[in-house]
Amino acid sequence: MMFERAAVALILSLVVAFSGGCSLLRGKPPSTATPVMEQERRFAGALQYLIQGKEREAQGLLEQVVAGQTLPGVTDEALFRLALLHLRDDGGKGDTHAHALLVRLKKEFPLSAWTRQAAPLAAYLVGVGALRDSQHDVRTLRERNLSLTRDNKELRQSIERLKNLDLELEQKIKR
């Protein structure tokens, strides 16, 4: 009888052990990253790249963060940091792109600390844009002024020629 109880206990414990093992394997799906976790992972990677001085790599990850799902505390800081990175772009388009990112930051996250920190930079970039536009206007006006100066010179020369022709004509008529 003792043997039978021990055998039953052993069989029951084996059944419980084996059935529990199957449910453990079947019950948990493989770990999948949620979009929020993915955004946070990209942002953390971008910060690591910035610490290492790898700005291009950081810029790529930050572009992915701001293009992805909006996540307060992550997307707002990513917009700010990406705007700063775009300030280094050559050709003057970096300022424009940085300003557009700061405008988006203000629109989407009006109460964020990053929006408040970005306000002076956004104002500065507006001034830089106005200065760039003024410089373009000055260049255009200089070119027009030069063109008008040439036209005036040609007109003076034409008037002088006409005066000379008129004098010659008067002299021929008097003869």
Automatic annotation (TrEMBL):
PROSITE patterns associated with the record: PROKAR_LIPOPROTEIN (PS51257)
Coiled coil: 138-175
Entry keywords, A to Z: Coiled coil
Name this protein carries in UniProt: Tetratricopeptide repeat-containing protein
Native organism: Oryzomonas rubra
